[in-house]
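Repro:
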Amino acid sequence: MADRGAREVLVHYAVAAENLFDYIDRMQGHVETPTRAGHCTDVTRAARDGQGFFRVDNPWMQSRWDGFVEAAGQAGAHCTRAIMDLDDEALRIGLSEIQTQHRVVGCLHARLRGSTDGTC
């Protein structure tokens, strides 16, 4: 059952990140701050959804999960703060962090399905 909830969190994060990057691409640099901040907040919310409920007997997987939840939450918060502060450089860093965690999502999802290929 925990796996199902974890998959839902990973999908929520992936969709939130994809929506953020799709929005930025669609707006071609003419991004409205409140809208973009909302996308960043959704990334943070997806990470927060993963806190505390997913506990497994596999220490390796638990460690990766906890690292993802923490890093994804920080990435979303960095993105939101950068937008509110109108700090382009901080925004680039926040978006890079979100993209990094988006790659981690794929790896964790594969591990939940039982694959041992690749590293997270």
